[in-house]
């Protein structure tokens, strides 16, 4: 009897594989935390903060409950007195908009550079005015580009720079890590991130003693010490001890996992050569290949063709912030951002993919015509 075999699905991600790789170490951490009785901000949390600061080459790291919280508290910590506008890109998933609004500020969108897909001095310049206090730069898809001109421009206007390195942890440009180039930085440990927890988590990085102290107060009700509220605007945003312990297991693996991600993207780039899909390269230490992103003006057609061959795809991100109904932002035209939202396509990319899976995606890419 004839029957058709459903193609094996190559998923965008499969968290169970990384969990099973690390299960022995996670179990050890779990047992140690249970035995210690410290379940929030205990010794593993302190150790993780120290290890993260050392890894990035910054003076301070502070654990918090999520990447969105990290953005909110980072923005609050550096917003100059008397200013209330945050400038950001509209193509980075909406997290900064959520965080800045929760912090009580308004958001102004700048278009992005057509090549880096990130903010630049050229795109942000026209939006700077005396009410702007913070520019949030997102190292999109894992790509740390040269922001020195933008940082210098912001500082010349008294504007602080917050880095969102949730997609770019471990990226280094000329030896300088994502998370160490602005005034303060935020990251997420959402499970699919390059450094992912087994639940929610986030962290803030800074070289400023004052900002670090402020963030550490804000993450715990505005307390300067127990039950003494010294700051307005505090909240409860703590990274719990188990997650800190799990992240401590994974931090030493990060560089090699990032290398594996880059090699997956490199295979896709080779397979796409001469074909109609433009896979964006992720070559060198400045790119940690959080996502394998391609550009095409035939997205729906190619997504269907890839799906036929069992390759899952996704879009990061289909709707720019200024067009999200829930954000109800004032009407604005951001031509590059809007064009990119219609062109980008993400392919499976996670370090635990098998070589067979990578090869199957490569064949599916090569078959596109
Ligand atoms: C660039 C970026 N910033 C912020 C966040 C928000 O992090 P979280 O989900 O931990 O709040 C994410 C993803 O989740 C992200 O990709």
UniProtKB/TrEMBL annotation:
The modification N6-(pyridoxal phosphate)lysine is found at residue 193. Transmembrane segments: none annotated. Belongs to the DegT/DnrJ/EryC1 family. It comes from the Bacteria. CDD domains: AHBA_syn. The keyword Transferase applies. Keywords: Aminotransferase, Pyridoxal phosphate, Transferase. Pfam families: DegT_DnrJ_EryC1. InterPro entries: DegT/StrS_aminotransferase, PyrdxlP-dep_Trfase, PyrdxlP-dep_Trfase_major, PyrdxlP-dep_Trfase_small. One of its GO terms (molecular function) is transaminase activity. The keyword Ribonucleoprotein does not apply. The active site is at residue 193. GO terms for biological process: polysaccharide biosynthetic process. This is DegT/DnrJ/EryC1/StrS family aminotransferase.
């Amino acid at each position: 009897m004839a029957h058709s075999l459903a193609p094996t699905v190559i998923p965008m991600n499969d968290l169970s594989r990384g969990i099973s790789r690390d299960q022995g170490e996670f179990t050890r951490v779990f047992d140690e935390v249970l035995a210690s009785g410290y379940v929030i901000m205990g010794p593993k949390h302190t150790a993780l903060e120290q290890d993260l600061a050392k890894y990035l080459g910054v003076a301070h790291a502070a654990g918090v409950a999520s990447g969105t919280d990290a953005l909110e508290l980072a923005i609050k910590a550096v917003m100059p007195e008397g200013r209330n506008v945050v400038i950001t890109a509209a193509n980075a998933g909406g997290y900064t908009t959520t965080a800045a609004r929760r912090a009580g500020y308004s958001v102004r969108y700048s278009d992005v550079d057509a090549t880096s897909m990130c903010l630049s001095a050229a795109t942000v310049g026209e939006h700077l005015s005396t009410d702007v206090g913070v520019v949030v730069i997102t190292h999109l898809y894992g790509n740390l580009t040269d922001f020195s001109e933008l940082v210098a421009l912001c500082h010349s206007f008294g504007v602080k720079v917050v880095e969102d390195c949730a997609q770019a942890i471990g990226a280094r440009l000329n030896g300088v890590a994502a998370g160490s180039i602005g005034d303060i930085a935020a990251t997420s440990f959402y499970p699919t991130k390059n450094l992912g927890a087994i639940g929610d988590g986030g962290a803030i990085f800074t070289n400023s003693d004052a900002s670090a102290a402020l963030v550490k107060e804000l993450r715990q009700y505005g307390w300067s010490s127990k039950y003494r509220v010294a700051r307005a605007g505090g909240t409860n945003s703590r990274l719990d001890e188990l997650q800190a312990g799990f992240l401590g297991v994974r931090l030493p693996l990060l560089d090699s996992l990032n290398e594996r991600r880059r090699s997956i993207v490199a295979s896709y780039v080779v397979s796409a050569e001469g074909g109609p899909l433009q896979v964006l390269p992720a070559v060198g230490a400045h790119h940690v290949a959080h996502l394998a992103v391609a550009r095409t003006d035939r997205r729906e057609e190619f997504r269907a063709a890839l799906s036929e061959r069992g390759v899952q795809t996704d879009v990061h991100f289909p709707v720019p912030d200024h067009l999200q109904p829930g954000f109800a932002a004032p009407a604005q035209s951001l031509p590059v951002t809007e064009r990119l939202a219609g062109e980008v396509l993400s392919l499976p990319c996670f370090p635990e993919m098998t070589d067979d899976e990578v090869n199957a995606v490569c064949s599916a890419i090569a078959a596109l015509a």
